[in-house]
Amino acid sequence: xxxxxxxxxxxLSPAGLHRIAYKEWGDSAxxxxxxxxxxxxxxxxxxxxLAQALCGEYRVICPDLAGRGRSDWLRDPRYxxxxxxxxxxxxxxxxxxxxxxxxxxxxxxxLIGMLLASLPDTPVRxxxxxxxxxxxxxxxxxxxxxxxxxxxxFPDFDEAAQYVKQTSMSFGPHTEAQWRKLAADVLRKSExxxxxxxxxxxxxxxxxxxxxxxxxxxxxxxxSAYDAIRCPTLLIRGAESDLLSSDTAQEMTxxxxxxxxxxxxxxxxxxxxxxxxxxxxxxxxxxx
Length: 288
Fold this sequence. Notes:
The protein is of the alpha/beta class.
């Protein structure tokens, strides 16, 4: 099995410096770069199976966003916002010393990619949006906000893993081994022997301060960004997703880059891209 290199990059927020960790798979001299960015409380390890499958064709880069995984937590949680993540990812691309990249983003990672791809002189050449779009269901956001940042602690790994599985059932069917990996990737053992979800609870701040007006403004901004995208775009949607509606997905096939839509039956928010069938969907689009 191919093993990735773990690297770190120093970035800047208005509150000071922080380090972003990323996994690098494949040949570091390969000019064909695929950046894979995870969802709200997930980590770079989510893409291990996909990276192993594609690292022969691509230099695959999987960062941990600030506040997650191996990356530093921000000194001020007010900056856990898309503009900060976008700035960190631009710094990462500069570190990679390439002029063009392909981007695969799950949920929040897709929002970051959408904005980056919309900018003049963007380095993004192909864009994969995994169960995310400019319009997000308010009830689904409320569901996510209800558990985000809660101080969950568990006496043993099995109980913690069961909690992760229960809160992630929308990911669709997985083997027990896959569920345990999905749990292990986001759990850490504390000094007192308890198991906890390893992300900064400050991520919840933006959910707590959001209003109906800010949500409307964000949606208008995201549609404007989407309409500005010109690169080939693939939209993957869990057919039972409560975050990305079927209507929004269909509109995304007509507007902006006129995304190619693939819906995966029996899956909600969001497909994990762990199975060979799901990886094949990504591979076909990228290598087309």
